[in-house]
UniProtKB/TrEMBL annotation:
Record-annotated VOC domain positions: 7-139
PROSITE patterns: VOC
UniProt protein name: VOC domain-containing protein
PANTHER family registered for this protein in UniProt: GLYOXALASE FAMILY PROTEIN, EXPRESSED (PTHR47802:SF1)
InterPro entries found in the cross-reference section: Glyas_Bleomycin-R_OHBP_Dase, Glyas_Fos-R_dOase_dom, VOC_core
Length: 141
């Protein structure tokens, strides 16, 4: 029997520069910083979207971790957002896609845009400063 009352609580991203990564999510998506616990052996910044109960935990990367810092894409180890529709990514929804696109352009973030086959949902794919894949989806009326 499956667990009852399940909901998504938080997503974690590791970084060697947690302040930089947290600032990116604040500026692009409007996350707000909330009180974070003190773990001692590593630092964290906890963020929350004001319009939801979704939290993002930005966690100091373990310096002994030998894995690459960011996935860049599932198909190639290059910074190419056109690989993200079939790669690892998080997706957010926004009510004003043009405003988000302008914010990304102002920050010099390379994007890849496409629409679902029916044309009703526009998609924008890009990377955060640590190479984590992101998508933003917006309904078109």
């Amino acid at each position: 029997m499956a667990a009852e009352g399940v909901s998504l609580n938080h997503i974690s991203r590791e970084s060697t520069d947690i302040k930089r990564l947290a600032q990116f999510y604040k500026e692009v998506f409007g996350f707000e910083e909330v009180e974070s616990p003190v773990f001692g052996e590593f630092k964290v910044v906890w963020l929350r979207l004001p319009s939801s109960l979704l939290y993002l935990h930005v966690i100091e990367r373990n310096p002994n971790n030998n894995l690459p810092e960011g996935p860049w894409s599932a198909t190639a180890p290059v910074v190419d957002p056109s690989h993200l529709p079939r790669g690892h990514h998080l997706c957010f929804s926004v009510s004003n896609l043009q405003s988000l696109l302008q914010t990304l352009k102002d920050k010099g973030v390379e994007t890849f845009e496409k629409s679902l086959p029916n044309g009703k949902i526009k998609q924008v794919f890009f990377f955060d400063p640590d190479g984590n894949g992101l998508e933003v989806a917006s309904k078109e009326d």
